[in-house]
Design brief:
Rhopdopsin 7-helix transmembrane proteins; 69% helix; mainly alpha; 3-stranded antiparallel β-sheet; 12-(S)-hydroxy-5,8,10,14-eicosatetraenoic acid receptor-like; G-protein coupled receptor
Length: 345
């Protein structure tokens, strides 16, 4: 076992977390714990309010927003993990010294990441087909009409997530340790493959969809550009989520594994702090995803504003309100060429 720099914490005894799970710098991790507490304090009410809108105001099952609702569910899995993770960091541990808790945390975090990425990419692909291949059969639009598809997607994620339960994944980065067995090495290798492919492949798809939609926007006439601009904002919001939440930690992961395999302990103590810090940054996806909801469906945005924003902000954010004949409410926005009415359920 490669030793690490001590931090004033007592040495771990048999049955507790090995030394490489101690934090290399207690000040850094206490700071990160406060960041996670802040993410939890902001993320819990935000996602609760989003959940309320989706169920009671927007009625997601009637508005073909099942995939957006699944992203909310994935974010709740993440928010639930933040207090536990912050507790461990404040106590000088990068993971729980209870193997059951450690595995459950890893399972939840892997599942959240996989589900968030899967449904975000599906939304981007849907916009791609609606814009670039308009008129052709859009298989994503067919999938959106069937809630059972979402259940299938969650079930397909399990084979990629369950390996976190098979063998203790020491400090989320055991690959390269000298005491690995063949089984342990295969399990860790599979985890690393999953970790990188679930980021890199979707990002390539996302970049492709974005480039094609932007090119399509440039070729369209002025009268057709409003819908295309909205599609660009959707995919660009997903790009922002990827660029802030997923790509930095993925790059840091590559550096961390490289340093570990070279057995440069001093460098590893520094890189591991950067990696854990960027992982904490990745948890902000529970705060950024609502931006995607707003760009994907203007009806959700208007319902959220009308429910939670003060009156003086509503007047600024929503141009005017008109009540339709069925007793519902619509938001009317006026441009130089046309007027668009967006329903609020």
């Amino acid at each position: 076992m490669i030793s690490t720099v001590t931090t004033g914490q007592p040495s771990m005894t048999m049955g507790q977390a090995p030394d490489n799970c101690n934090v290399p710098n207690i000040v850094t991790y206490k700071t990160l714990s406060w960041v996670m507490i802040g993410e939890f304090v902001l993320g819990l009410p935000l996602n609760l309010s989003v959940l309320y809108i989706f169920i009671f105001r927007f009625k997601f099952w009637k508005n073909k927003s099942v995939f957006l609702f699944n992203i909310v569910v994935a974010d709740f899995l993440l928010v639930a993990c933040l207090p536990v993770k912050a507790f461990h960091y404040r106590n000088g541990l990068r993971r729980s010294d209870d193997n059951t808790v450690c595995k459950m945390m890893l399972f939840m975090l892997f599942l959240n990441r996989g589900a968030s990425i899967a449904f975000l990419i599906i939304l981007s692909v849907d916009r791609y087909f609606n814009v670039v291949h308009l008129g052709r059969r859009n298989f994503v639009k067919v999938l959106k009409k069937s809630p059972q598809i979402s259940i299938i997607i969650w079930l397909l994620l399990l084979p990629l997530t369950i390996p976190t339960m098979l063998k203790t994944f020491e400090c989320c980065n055991s690959h390269g340790r000298t005491n690995e067995t063949s089984f342990h090495d295969v399990t860790d290798t599979f985890r690393e493959i999953v970790f990188f492919t679930q980021i890199l492949i979707p990002f390539i798809i996302l970049v492709y969809c974005t480039v094609r939609i932007v090119n399509r926007l440039r070729k369209k006439t002025v009268g057709e550009k409003t819908k295309l601009r909205r599609a660009v904002w959707v995919v660009m919001s997903v790009v922002v989520v990827f660029s802030i939440c997923f790509l930095p930690s993925t790059i840091a992961r590559v550096v961390l594994l490289s340093v570990r395999l070279l057995e440069k302990q001093d460098a590893e103590n520094i890189v591991v702090q950067i990696y854990d810090g960027l992982m904490v940054l990745s948890y902000t996806d529970c705060l950024l995803d609502p931006l995607v909801y707003c760009f994907c469906n203007s009806g959700f945005k208007d319902a959220y504003i009308s429910t939670f924003c003060p009156k003086f902000l509503q007047e600024r954010l929503l141009t005017s309100y008109t009540v339709n004949g069925t007793g519902g409410m619509t938001t009317t926005t006026t441009s130089a060429t046309r007027t668009n009415s967006l329903p609020i359920l």
